[in-house]
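Quick log. Single chain, no ligands specified.
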Amino acid sequence: MFGNSWWRRATVATALLALAIAPTTSTAAVADPTPTPHPHHHPHPHPHTAPGPSTLPADTADPADPADPLELPEPPPVGVVRTELTELHVAAPHSMNGYSRAKFPHWIKQHGQCNTRDVVLARDGKDVKQDEMCRAISGTWYSEYDGETFTEARQLDIDHIVPLANAWRSGADRWETPERRKFANDLVHSQLIAVSARSNRQKGDQSPDQWAPPRHAYWCTYARAWTDVKHLYHLNVTEPEKAELDEMLDTCEQ
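-> predicted structure:
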C-alpha cells in the first residue's frame, strides 16, 4: 500500500487542507450543549478540546508516527464509549428539508491526485496498487459489514459510519459547508470505511435501530464508532437509536 514517506506527505497535506478550510468557531455548528469527552484515550489525545467540527482537536491533523502503518482508526474502548453514549443529546430527528449530499462536499483531494476515496481504499485494502491518477487498480479488500472479500475496487463503497443524511437530521443541518466538508472526509476518526457496495446500499442512511451490519462480530466496533463520531461532532440521537447502541455495546463484553 502506501510507503511511510507517502503517508508523511499525505498527512502534512491533510493538515494544510484542514487549516485552510477550518471555520471560525460558531455556536450554530453545535447541535447541542457540549459534553465532556474522555480526555485520555488514544487516538483522541485531547478530545476535551473537541466540542464539534468547527473546533476539532488541533492534533487531528498531526503527522502519524512514521513507524505506524496506515490503518483504520480504532474507536475508543467500550468503557469510554458507554460514557459518551450517556452524554449524547436525545432528540427527535430534524426535518430533511433542504438536504442534499452536495452540501457535504466529499471525496476531496487529500494529496496530489488522491482523493478521500482513494486514500481509504489504499488504507483498508491489502497489496493495493494505484495508477498515476491514484485509482486502485488491484488489491484485496475485506468487507467488515458482511465478511466478503473483493479484488476489484469498483465492488466497494466508502461508507460514512454516520451517514450524511443521518447527520443532517441529527444537527448537521445547522452547520456551515466547511464543517460538513470536514465531517464527510474525516480520515482521523472512525467515520470512513471501505465495505461491499451491497451492504452500504442496504444500510442507506439508517441508524443502528434500523440497520446493523449482517456480520454480528462487527457490532461492537460499529456501535463504538457510531457513538464516538456522534459524540465528537455533537450530533443528536433518538431514543430507539440510543437503546440499540447500548445493546450492541453489550456484544463487546461477550
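Residues 4-21 form the longest helix (18 residues).
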